[in-house]
Amino acid sequence: MSSRKKTLLKVIILGDSGVGKTSLMQQFVNNKFSHQYKATIGADFLTKEMLIEDKNVTIQLWDTAGQERFQSLGVAFYRGADCCVLVYDVTNSKSFENLSSWKDEFLIQANVKNPDNFPFVILGNKIDLEENKRAITTKKALSLCESLGNIPYFETSAKENVNIEVAFDIVARNALQQELENDAEFNEDYSDAINIHINGEQSGCAC
Amino acid sequence: MAFKATWNSSSSLFNKLAGHARTEKRDDGAAGASAKETAKETVSVQHHSVEVDGSCNTGDGGHTETKTKDVCKHLGKSEDGNKNNNGNDNGNSDVLNQKDNGSKDDSINDSIIDNEIDPHKTRLNSNLNSNLSNSFLLAPKQNQRSFSNPTTHTTGTSSTTLRLNSNSKRLSITRIGSVSPKSPSTFDINNLLLASKPIATVNFETVNYNNSNNNSSNLISDVRESLTNSITDLRSINNNDNSSLISVETSSTTFNLNSNGNSTATRYNDSPILSDLIPTITLYSENESLENMLNELISDSQSQLNSNLISAQTGVIIDNLLINFELSDDSHDLNQFHKMKKHFFILSSAGKPIYSMHGSDDIITGYMGLIQTIASYFENFNLDSNFYTNNTNFSFFITDPNNDSVKSFQTSDTIFVFLNKSPIILVAISSIYPKESENTLTYQLNFLYEFLISSLSKPYLIRSFKNRDNYDLRKHLGRGDLSRLDSLCNEFSMNYYLNPSFLIGGLEGIYLRKKIRDKINKIFLEYSNKNKKQKNNNSINSDNINNNTNPSKSLLYGLLVAPKEKLISVIRPRRHTLHTSDLQLLFNVVFNSNSFKNNNANEDYYDYYNSNSSRYQSEVGSIRSNITNRTTASNIFSNINNNNNINNMSSSNSNINSNINNINNINNINNQNNLSMLSKSEEEFWIPICLPKFNPNGFLYAFINYIDLNKLEYEVEVKSQELYNKLYNKNDNTGGNNGDNNDLRNILNNFSFNINSNSNSNSNENNNDNEIRNEIRNDMGNDMGNDIGNVNFDFNSNLNSSGFFEENNNKIAMVLISANKNAFYDLRKISNNIINSLISNSVSANNINNKNDQNYNNKINDSNNNGIGENFVMNVNGSNKTTNRKKTENSNNIIKMLNDSLTRNRVSVLDIPAPLIYHFIFKSKKNLQYVFASFKPNFPTKESQLKLMILYSELFSKISDKKLNKNDFINLSLNNFNGDISANTNNVNHLSNTNNKNNKNGQRYEAYETKWKGNSKNNDLIGFSLISDTYEIYLISGGLVNNEYLIKSAKKIVQWCKKNEERLFICGGAVY
């Protein structure tokens, strides 16, 4: 544990089952893609190093289970996230419609201090599939993103590695920005002196 | 319903973690498998892994991989799938596949069991041996002595490797380890006899021991005896699947069989010693047919084994004890990470890493998420304490129902403990053997937590995370913090304790005579207590900048600590004592931080454990350079000491004169209140520290000053000599000091004061107990006798950097604690005053003693000094009428006595005497201090010392384990424990009811005993502990010693320790 200069960002990936969360992660971290579908149980964890403006950033990716039956991991699971990535499948309108409920659930469970400013990113995955299968147009997606609070939007393909790097670059930048703002608020001085009353009875251990 | 789903998913998470943490597992195949399968693998792989891994640091990789593959192959997983997951932090689990696999597997299990294990279908035949040989036989390697890559032969999936035949009642096992490296030997073990479930003894009635080289009947009977006596741990674990597994071990070989047809064998030692032949059979089975069959075997021959039943209390086999040694690292090597037997993780509640003992950031970051997920699962489902499952080979329970911040679960050889100290989570994972209890691990985690608090303070920690769950605490941990965390974790990750304090939960005091301790306390008080007038505070110390405040107001606590964290003296406010763990934290700072201490370590240590991490190697480098520095320093001092010797011995003028020149070059004693040059330390530190038990909400400030007693002692000698010269050799050329009457008057005034105070305490003591004094003297004489030649023996084997085995280091630390941030100069002044007072006190003591020297006396008489001198002498004479003055020469010299105490051995069992006791620890509950017996004479080697500590660890952890089998307790109805012991020895019984713990007197005793097998009966060891309301005593003795003797010895030791309480312990210290 020596390399402490790096900033660590906790990024949570949410979205309906089968939209390609795990595939996105795998492509992003390992540059691999598998056609097989394997449901994620609970959560998987990946890390990826990024260089953002000369700053080493470690992204701690929390790839969550989309399937409801594997979701009950608890409130604390979302706690302390620096950014949340919402994923839907551009060929699956249900997954698109669920985006805002995913967002709401995250905000509730993560106990975010400042929900309006919390960094989200929305990804429309599977754009490699034929155009006629597509259920959600870019325009529709953009308008939703705007209504949810100007959330950055990317259309990605985990299979063909389209737009993933770009999207996560924004994820990292937004998370960093958020963290800087948090740090700024914390810079008050802190007094740590103990007031010892030698003959007092309150402080200390009298065992 | 929801709960069930969650449980399923989470249990697979546990298994993922189990898979990751398991030392020998290379890939994450486990993560891909279903919970059941993982658990199964866990068992099959784990049981022997402890021994294999530990004993053979190199080359265990090969077999494990084979085994894992084998298991996976059987489970119907393609190896490809397995490989895909290799090197990937997360097993990307596929629930659908799992389900398929799971069901397929069950059917496979069933079929195998039906076909292979069914007693009626299985017959023992002549092919069996060869069959087994093919399956298991490890090709013996010629002349292979050292550890090597184990050769592993495994069967295919179809053949069952262990066959039991109920008709012939034979269990035939091919011997795997060869007695002679040249010929693979085979013996049949007939009549597997099992006493009862779940723990049973195996009796191998007939042993056909075929060995062309060694065929004497003697050996065979030896083998039979050892086989018969071998403890067998037969466990049935309720698997709800049908897998069963039998693992057979000898100390050199382990092989596992399970009914699925998988078998693995591992050999890790070629040493052809008899103890190799002791097999241990472990059965994990829910397979009823197999179990019934075994029971059949048992019931048939039950009558034959009664005499050889070995009690359930048996612990590890001593020869199998492996010294676990892992050091923290930040290696990028995932394999190495997984191999580690002990892990500590500290993370934020959000899952962000704060500290990990092993592994680089890129390795651990993922695991932190995993851990956080499990912790959040705990949080979400507040399981009641009754929740306990044994379904999947790990039990899961809440350690303390009243404290739900601790959660733990365990597999057959790995225990996971989670300590949730929101906003941070601490996790310990241990597969150390002998197994650590969750209490032990919880204690360690708490200590790590307190360490963080001591560095950051609680409010800071809380505030950091307030409204910012995503806070990254690493920003606020400095290098020093991390290296101290490392050193703590290193300490905790061995299966022995270098520092017994952590094991015992107390501190060790230095052995000092009460008089000396009182003197030190008095000096402490004199210079720190505001109610008392300070004497001779004439000169204003230039260091004292804060002159407007009384320095003593600043002082809260004062400690004088010897190396190895032994307490010398304490000054404390009347209402406050310091908690042991606070002191341990403080000592960790004082002695364990690399920046402060002058670290010594023995090079052997590194040879011993050379194969460890790179970080360690670099540490070695720095320590080595320290050693060289020290060597030169000690060379200088040995010169000085030579001079001293001359000083002491010489009575002739010429010698003295020659020395005077030396002395004058070094020092003058014109003004006593000047800080002497030699004692002036360059090593002063001022550090903020939060003592969590004292007050977790803020910092105290510690002034730390390291004092080299060798230097001080030398200085005392020099000053004594000068004083002597001034008094009696006024004509000598003393460099401008000659005959300054005013100076002399000052000096002597001071000295007479000191002498008077000494004589007071002397006479008190005389009046009180002259007998005891004589005894003391005798003790001292004895002790000295013991010590001759032994000095340095105990600690020459300075195995570590934390001080336990450290070579004699005469540097003590003065720690003065203040609540005032700006009190540095105040405390430094107090410290200097105390040091000076120690010196002057010792100087005067020296001179008192010197008068007993005939030559000295003559000189005094001859010199016909002026009035000052006569006064002095009269004073001296008036205060010392006791005889035997010579014998206790310098016994009033605090510094010399202290120094002697540092170099002397710990109390030996021979001092008590309790000759059959090999070693003991006595803890006084009142003083929260312990006596740790000297390793000599029974544990002369480093290795034996470490093994002793392992045994203690096991003893302690068994005692602290709440789930301890009640049978392991011995009930002592010690009605008259302090009286006639022999009358009560018959009352040593197994405890059937906890209520029996109370005896008539209301004094509660708890006794515990555990036995360890040696390679022969004579080498068995027994661990015994007796815990009363006021003390705890732990003994290690030979296995042949009976309970009566143990209790007698315990009593002797207790009495001895109580008698010497004031020397062994700091009783209260200086209180103001």
UniProtKB/TrEMBL annotation, chain A:
UniProt keyword annotation of Isomerase present: no
CDD domains documented for this protein: Rab7
Domain of life (superkingdom): Eukaryota
GO CC annotations on file: cytosol; fungal-type vacuole membrane; multivesicular body; vacuole-mitochondrion membrane contact site
Alphabetical list of InterPro entries matching this protein: P-loop_NTPase, Small_GTP-bd, Small_GTPase
Family recorded in the similarity comment: Belongs to the small GTPase superfamily. Rab family.
Name of the featured protein: Ras-related protein rab-7A
TrEMBL record, chain B:
Region (Disordered): 18-113, 143-162
Domain FUZ/MON1/HPS1 first Longin intervals: 342-389, 399-479
PANTHER family: SAND PROTEIN-RELATED, VACUOLAR FUSION PROTEIN MON1 HOMOLOG
Residue ranges with Low complexity bias: 83-94, 146-162
Primary location group: membrane
Localization: Endosome, Multivesicular body membrane; Prevacuolar compartment membrane
Protein name as it appears in the record: Vacuolar fusion protein MON1
Biological-process GO terms, alphabetical: protein targeting to vacuole; vesicle-mediated transport
Assigned GO CC terms: fungal-type vacuole membrane; Mon1-Ccz1 complex; multivesicular body membrane
Domain (FUZ/MON1/HPS1 third Longin): residue spans on this chain: 917-1061
Family listed: Belongs to the MON1/SAND family.
Feature: compositional bias, Basic and acidic residues: 62-82
Membrane topology type: Peripheral membrane protein
Occurrences of domain FUZ/MON1/HPS1 second Longin (ranges): 553-723
InterPro entries, alphabetized: FUZ/MON1/HPS1_longin_1, FUZ/MON1/HPS1_longin_2, FUZ/MON1/HPS1_longin_3, Mon1
A Pfam cross-reference name: Fuz_longin_1
Species of origin: Ascoidea rubescens DSM 1968
